[in-house]
Amino acid sequence: MPLWILISGHVFSGLFLRNLGEGFGGIDEVSVRNIAMAIKNIHQLFIHWLLPPLALLVFVAQVRIVMGKRTRWIIDLLGGLLILRCALQFVILNLLLLSHLKAGGLLLLQLLLFIPVITVAFGWLYWRLDTAARAKGQAHIRFAEEMGALDTFDYYHVSAMTLLQFEPSGATPLSRLMKTLFVIHGIMMLDLVALTLSRAIGLASGG
Hints:
The protein is mainly alpha-helical. 77% of the residues lie in helices and 3% in strands. It has one domain (2-204).
């Protein structure tokens, strides 16, 4: 399950960049357009070289899962790359929100494509760190209604709830690391909502 959830996150991340590439002409501000293009080109070059070996690793991971063998390092690699892509796309999205666009559709679609990326990225991060701690008899997160064995879905649910409350809910961070991640996650979501509202208000007032 973690493998294919991460792959879905990478798919949405790729769609984000593809749509961005098709909408460069809709960005009026030259400096913002150049920065966005530079980030996209660097990212695309990076992915171009990594995509073939990553596709092979996904196949190997699926085979190992069927055989009942561990695939932790492959999943960690995919998760780490998704975190990096999420951070870069967060920067691009902020640039778009702060710049003037000829077509509002570009911004709306980018926001919709970014939501699954950030949800899956933080969900994987919570799952990875907490399960590693629990394997050592500790924990980074205490769930509000923790009964029996935890499922991977529980961590993605915590991440998804940030869309509604600007901070992970249904769980309490126990370590300084997890408290910091919860704050960062909440700030990122609040940033997107605040900038989106300000853009909507600007458009409504004719700005």
